[in-house]
Every structure is written in structure tokens, then in C-alpha cells.
From TrEMBL:
Required cofactor(s): Zn(2+)
UniProt EC number: 6.1.1.7
Protein family: Belongs to the class-II aminoacyl-tRNA synthetase family.
GO molecular function ontology, one term from the record: ATP binding
Record's keyword terms, sorted: Aminoacyl-tRNA synthetase, ATP-binding, Ligase, Nucleotide-binding, Protein biosynthesis, RNA-binding, tRNA-binding
GO cellular component, one term: cytosol
Alanyl-transfer RNA synthetases family profile domain mapped to chain residues: 1-286
PANTHER family, sorted: ALANINE--TRNA LIGASE, CYTOPLASMIC, ALANYL-TRNA SYNTHETASE
Record protein name field: Alanine--tRNA ligase
UniProt-listed InterPro entries: aa-tRNA-synth_II/BPL/LPL (IPR045864), Ala-tRNA-lgiase_IIc (IPR002318), Ala-tRNA-ligase_IIc_anticod-bd (IPR018162), Ala-tRNA-synth_IIc_core (IPR018165), Ala-tRNA-synth_IIc_N (IPR018164), Ala-tRNA_ligase (IPR050058), Ala_tRNA_ligase_euk/bac (IPR023033)
Highest taxon of source: Bacteria
Database matches in HAMAP family: Ala_tRNA_synth_B (MF_00036_B)
One BP annotation, GO: alanyl-tRNA aminoacylation
Length: 286
């Protein structure tokens, strides 16, 4: 399944679930002085979450182009050195504005990953905010995930915000076990480890609050949903490769660059990092 096919399957799935398909917004946000670049799929819906803007739909899905090269979400220094970090990538997301909430989004995500993409249910692990018993119980009792595959984590891991201020809330992340041969090299079995064995696929944000400049959380007018799943990352899983750079979305750029430079990819790690950086930056500038 190509990256293009995955992108289309995602949008088609949510359109069939009565979501309006919304075009990706500009990489340079309009009328938002808090951001230099669009860094998440929810940016264009910020005022909708806050109740300032009214749209003629309560469900939406997008494939949002984003750049993370500064500010709160900054992956610039990791590009080329890891299998999954980029400055530019595409964010698949579905949104609910006062419509469905935790139960709805969890069921949609599970159906898409396991039935549409056909991922192995036994390889999927879940994390939730440690105070969020509701999400924990939905995963355990309704989806049927074993309690041993659900982690309760703190604010750093499972409470999402797009910046220092604005809409935010607890979240639940879906991870996939890529196997003991991937990761930190010590047969890691800890989903909280920062190695690549347990790869985060999809972040389901339960948008409940507006954080002001003093850090105070104010309940939003209507609890809403904001999700994000990197297209390059899910493409790597579906295409059974261990690096986003080896997907059909990026590898051809690397091969073309290597050809121009008269070298071969995966011959020299130092050169490979450079080739990955060039591919990433070429996509970002384009």
C-alpha cells in the first residue's frame, strides 16, 4: 500500500463516518501570531475549539501539511539521525467539535488501524493520561485491550497542547510493537522506553481546556476531539520498513540525491544522515 493510498483510505474512511474533508491549510498560519509555522492539524480549527468560530459541520478530517522546526514542537536537530523525525510531514487527523468524544474517537481509530489497514491487534499498545480513568476503561472494557498493554503516564507524555497557550487536553496514544530486533538493543519490553520498538502511531487528544498566559486551564464550551497520525510513520509500518525514510514517500528522493552525488545510500552512516537531511529539507522547502 503506497503512501498515497493510505492517505486516501484515511480520508475515505472518515468521509463515510460523516466527516467533512477539509483541505490542508497553509504552512504559514493566518491570523495567529502564536505560531511561525503550522505545527499540527488542529491549528486551522483553533477558534472552532475555543467557540469563537462557528462552522457548518461538527466533524472534520484532514491531511494537514506541517513543519516542526522551532517552538514547542521542534524536531530539527533529530532529522536524519532517527528513523522518524522530520521538519516537514503530513498529519492525518479527524476532529469533533462538540460531537463525539472519547468513546467515538477510540472506536474509530481502532477500526481504521485493525480493519482498514489490517494491523495486528496483539501488537498494539495504549497509553492514557494517568488521571483519565474513562479512557482507560474504554480501551480495557469496550475495545478489549489487556490491562498489561495499557500504560498510565503523566502530563509530559499524555497531555497535549499546541503551544504555551490555547486549546489542550489529556490524550491517549496508540503504539505498535515493532519487535525485539528494533530499538535499544537490550530486548526492550517497556512501552515507555524512547527507543523505536514501541512506535507511537496515533495521538488522540481529548480537547477539554483553554490554557491562558498564566497557565490556568479553563474548560472549553464543548469537549472536542483532535487526533494526529503521521502519514510517513504509518506508511513505514504498513510497508514493513523500519524507517520513514525507506517508505515510497521519501526513499526515491534519497536515491536521486545519492545518484547525483555519485554515492550509494546505506554505505556510510555519516553520508546517510546527510542524504536523509537533504531529502527532508527538500520536501519541506518544496
Amino acid at each position: 500500500m503506497t503512501g498515497k493510498e493510505i492517505r486516501q483510505k484515511f480520508l475515505d474512511f472518515f468521509e463515510q463516518k460523516d466527516h467533512t474533508i477539509v483541505k490542508s491549510s497553509s504552512l504559514v498560519p493566518e491570523n495567529d501570531p502564536t505560531l511561525l509555522f503550522t505545527n499540527a492539524g488542529m491549528n486551522q480549527f483553533k477558534d472552532t475549539f475555543l467557540g469563537v468560530e462557528k462552522r457548518n459541520y461538527s466533524r472534520a478530517a484532514t491531511c494537514q501539511k506541517v513543519v516542526r522546526a522551532g517552538g514547542k514542537h521542534n524536531d530539527l536537530e533529530n532529522v536524519g539521525r532517527t528513523a522518524r523525525h522530520h521538519t516537514f510531514f503530513e498529519m492525518l487527523g479527524n476532529f469533533s467539535f462538540g460531537d463525539y468524544f472519547k468513546r467515538g474517537v477510540i472506536n474509530y481509530a481502532w477500526e481504521f488501524l485493525t480493519e482498514v489497514l489490517g494491523l495486528d491487534k496483539e501488537k498494539l499498545y495504549i497509553s492514557v493520561f494517568h488521571e483519565d480513568d474513562e479512557a482507560f476503561n474504554i480501551w480495557k472494557n469496550e475495545i478489549g485491550i489487556s490491562e498489561t498493554r495499557i500504560s498510565k503516564l503523566g502530563e509530559k507524555e499524555n497531555f497535549w497542547s499546541m503551544g504555551d497557550t490555547g486549546p489542550c487536553g489529556p490524550c491517549s496514544e496508540i503504539h505498535i510493537d515493532q519487535g525485539p530486533e528494533i530499538g535499544c538493543g537490550r530486548s526492550c519490553c517497556d512501552p515507555e522506553c524512547d527507543c523505536d520498538r514501541f512506535l507511537e502511531l496515533w495521538n488522540l487528544v481529548f480537547m477539554q481546556y483553554d490554557r491562558d498566559a498564566e497557565g490556568t486551564l479553563h474548560p472549553l464550551p464543548k469537549p472536542s476531539i483532535d487526533t494526529g497520525m503521521g502519514l510517513e510513520r504509518i506508511a513505514a509500518v504498513v510497508q514493513n520498513v523500519t524507517s520513514n525514510f525507506d517508505t515510497d514517500l521519501i526513499r526515491p528522493i534519497i536515491e536521486e540525491t545519492a545518484s547525483i552525488a555519485g554515492i550509494r545510500y546505506k554505505d556510510n552512516e555519516k553520508l546517510d544522515i546527510s542524504l536523509r537531511v537533504i531529502a527532508d529539507h527538500a520536501r519541506a522547502t518544496t
